[in-house]
Amino acid sequence: MPTFPKWARTLAEQYQGGTIIEFIVHGNVHDYVPAESKEGKSFVALRDFLATQLFPRRDAIIYYDPSNGITFRDDDTFGDFNRVASAVDAASGTKYAQQGLPRDARRALYLIERYMQAKVDPRGGGKPKSVAVVIEYASLVVPAGDLSRLHQDEQATLVTLLRWAHDPVLLRSDVTIVLVAENLAEVSPVLVKSPYIGRAEVEHPDEAERLEYLQWRFQQVPDLAKLADIDVTRFASLTAGLSRVNLNHITSQAVGNQRRLTVDFVTKEKKSLIEKECYGLLEFLVPSHGLDVVSGHAYQKEWLKADAKLIHEGKIDALPMGYLICGPVGTGKTFMAQCYTHDIGIPCVKLLNFRSQWQGVTEGNWEKILNVLKATGPVGVIIDEADAAVGDRDANDSGTSKRVFSQLAQTMGDTRYRGLILWFLLTCRPDLLPIDLKRQGRAEIHIPLFYPESREERRTMLQILAKKVGCELDADALAIDMRGSSLQPGGIDGATSGGNGHGHVHGEGCAHDHDHDDHESKADTGVHAVTAEERTKAEAAEDEDYTDEDAVRSVSEVIDDVLATSGLSGAEVEGILVRAKRRAYIDNRKKVSATDLRLEAQSYIPNLPKEQLELQILAAMIECSDRRFLPARLGRLARSEVIERFRELLRREKQN
């Protein structure tokens, strides 16, 4: 037996058992398949591989798809089939032989069945023939969907294929039926789950298989060697997740347009091809920054950098399967995940909306995405707004969310992909995520992010975001402390105000007894009047004093005060910077002054209700998997009181 691909060996072994004659071949079915002949190795389409490699000795090979109808491997089979069709016409009064063979599935499969019966069990002592039937685009012939909504012809087609699988005459004959579909989820589950029907998955080529194809391709097209700035081994390594058809496209584009085969060219082509192959359901992200540019979150960054080091050293058995990154809106969850993948040096993709209104399409999309991710690894996968994207077991949508959730949970928990597929579930409401995805063995490390605590963190964030939006700041503008209290008139520099738009203003609505003015003088004297050393001492003294104060405060009051003394979110600061730049442009200035920034900050009105923000912070605290990820003040709060306050807010949310 020639050296067959894994899927073909699986199919052959099941057939040799003598109990299965019908198979569903799914996955990377539109790719080239390696074939061997007297002329040497070549790469052919799947239907040609089936005809010349898997079924070379079959007397007849018949193809069917909804577009071309019934076609044949050779003219002899065509003539033989027409003779059977003429006999059917004579017996039933039809005119298939004269008017042309039918294209609709019900009548086409009826004729194919009559042909198989006539050839594998001939009357009059004739010699039985061997037959192979290949039904392409099976997802359009027997699509997934509610059985009660199937048309009568669709029901007949489904029953025909089910009946063939356990037909006694066919089982004892040399007959094979192969249904070809890209996504198994798009094929009728009645067929997929049938114990009489085998399955074989055509996987994307691994690195060795890509190398084999590229070596063959370079031999076939000598000009490729002249255009290549990378060797063929490096080429194969860079193209994880691509099919042989994709590799043919890249090399053909290089030759046809005389483009150099560089790392940059191959990477760009790979990004474009995978996004197209996934129907625009994936977006490749190209992070340009590492974790060093992330302001604050010291222990979170330390943990992620250590994991990145393990990946570089090949110690992937000590890595988590995935991360849950949570926290209130605007804390940089997506940015953190992207920066981490940059430090690891692996591609990063973001899942776009893969859901569809049509029955079965969502599951098909999801299966396609998962197959590509498995072949692309190592890869980081970002699922933003994960609580809404991944579905759950209880959604009332005809089982779609349940099936999507099941596929994701199964892949996330598959330890074969540890260190190869890194999952990042991002959400501001981790409590809404199914517990199955958050447990150990899936999204194992839960990293909460909060607004910047120290003045230095806020200054760093201001500089990074100013660079991002192309905002040139005056030196005095950089000295402005963009914290929660800056939203109160006169409080932008922290000299006169302690209030903010999120929580209570110091001195108002505060049930506890403490000296607000004393804290302001320690932590927030004018930004031009204190040195860095004095500021550090002031912040340390402030934290010590908060320990005593927080002991007599409620959870809600502590969070209010944390919001008042911490920085604005990155999204808020970015918006304020853009408006400050607008103000400068209107005044025909290129640089943004402190006055521009101060006025826009004081004019800004937060649009997130205070209770929603508190709810998100509490959810992140409860979900945190390591106490060291929490800011000092939040980490000191009693967990029981945090949970009690969280439940109280949930009750209010449901009532509203």
Q: What is the CATH architecture annotation of the largest domain?
A: 3-Layer(aba) Sandwich
The number of helical segments is 30
Q: How many whole angstroms does the radius of gyration measure?
A: 32 Å
How many separate domains make up the residues? 4
Spatially, the strands of the biggest sheet line up as: 5-4-6-7-1-8
Stated plainly, the CATH topology of the largest domain is called Rossmann fold
**Strand portion:** 5-15%
CATH homologous superfamily descriptor of the largest domain: P-loop containing nucleotide triphosphate hydrolases
CATH class of the largest domain: Alpha Beta
Overall pLDDT confidence: 83
Note poorly predicted spans: 494-530
Q: Give me the count of strands.
A: 16
Largest sheet: 6 strands, mixed
Structural class: alpha/beta
Task: Give the SSE map.
Blueprint: H1 6-16, E1 22-27, E2 33-37, E3 40-44, H2 46-54, E4 60-65, E5 69-72, H3 75-92, H4 96-99, H5 105-120, E6 131-135, H6 138-141, H7 152-165, H8 168-171, E7 175-181, H9 189-192, E8 197-202, H10 207-220, H11 223-227, H12 232-238, H13 244-256, H14 263-277, E9 282-285, H15 298-312, E10 322-326, H16 333-344, E11 348-351, H17 361-376, E12 379-383, H18 386-389, H19 400-412, E13 421-427, H20 435-438, E14 443-448, H21 455-468, E15 472-473, H22 475-478, H23 516-523, H24 532-551, H25 555-565, H26 570-586, E16 591-592, H27 594-603, H28 610-623, H29 632-635, H30 639-655
Parallel strand pairs: 1-7, 1-8, 4-6, 6-7, 10-13, 10-14, 11-12, 12-13, 15-16
Antiparallel strand pairs: 2-3, 4-5, 9-11
Helix pairs in contact: 3-5, 5-7, 10-12, 10-13, 15-16, 17-19, 21-26, 26-27, 28-30
